[in-house]
Amino acid sequence: MSKFNTYFLMKPTDVIEYVKEKLDLFEPEADLDCKEIGDGNLNYVFRVWDKNTNQSVIVKQAGETARISDDFKLSTDRNKIESDVLQLEGKLAPGLVPVVYKYDEIMNCSAMEDLSDHVIMRQALIEHKKFPLFADHVTTFMVNTLLLTTDVVLEHKEKKALVKNYINPDLCEITEDLVYTEPFNDYKGRNDVFPPNLEWVRRELYEDQELRLEVAKLKFEFMTNAQALLHGDLHTGSIFIKPDSTKVIDPEFAFYGPIGYDVGNVIANLIFAWVNADATINDVAEREDYTVWLEKTIVDIVNMFNEKFLKAWEENVSEVLAKEEGFDKWYLGTVLRDTAAVTGLELSRRIVGLAHVKDITSISDKNARLRAERICLTAAKDYIKKRESFKTGEDFLATLREAVNRFPR
User: Fold this and answer.
1) What region holds the Aminoglycoside phosphotransferase domain (predicted)?
2) Which structural domain range is residue 49 located in?
3) Would you say the pTM of this structure is higher than 0.70?
4) I need a surface site. Which of 38, 39, 244, 246 has the fewest CB within 10 A?
5) Same domain, yes or no, for 207 and 295?
6) CA 20 distance to own-chain centroid
7) Alpha helices, H only, 147-259
């Protein structure tokens, strides 16, 4: 009787046995090794490889609690959503996600393509590497996976069936708490604020009633606007990259929500890369060269998204009333509004909340980190409060620059 007929949390030795028994990827005589390589907040990720041929596979398993904190009790079937979404995204945006080989409902794990020839984008940006094709790749991914899963394109009953299929209450609750609630009031006492910034954060976020009201509006829009099938956690830690290839991973937070949630996450995490480079590159010319590239990437992503979105709309729209003149631009405007808001929410929660990013925490100089955090949070407030005014990439960049100018070196 197989040991894998009942769920348990695997160790590397178990994963080797699992791969041999459940996957038809390696020769019987393969000499396999395994290492746990996960560094995320939720799941356990194992790399298995044949020491003789270097053939490899990734096995990802869901535990019953989040790795970030045992406070988060989670359904172990969340990897099914991830596997299903990756396969759908692979059809909508070919070549931009890893190939899924198998999902195991008993062990709550999936086996997929190993992307070890790529690197995690967050770390690559911290090392100040450039990826000239990223803006083109990520905007194609977002337009294809988001617009093509809306009521504008899909037959309405088909879309509603997808909404039902991707109900994801446990992980949505994490987003509702960590992104839309706690950074602005710390009502659970879980926020982790850089101590020198605590009083500033209390004054600028917790005590800003106008900001809190706008965030309240955004939270309920997030919970009720089943617009498109989101990745749900589209940051630079969920992207494997190399100069000629971009692969989006980890869509376990996927559910039907507002398109701008994914787009805003991408923009915010490029801003984290910007403040990291600004704080850590000492050579003035090198610093300017890299931050200018990041600025161009931010502008390009917004503008290319706009252009591709309208083109895909024209080519794929099926809803009769969506073909009314001007409706496409109005709809895109609502997406950009949400994108700006989420840019601000993500900037806030990664600095004030429970789940930080290395772009910020790796800044060793206390004063430089303080400045980086205040730039992000100052821009965040404008992205949220003035969200209706953002239409182009240049608009997004202008707000970042205004925040930078408020905190001179």
Assistant:
1) 204-273
2) 3-112
3) yes
4) 244
5) yes
6) 32
7) 156-165, 169-178, 198-201, 209-224
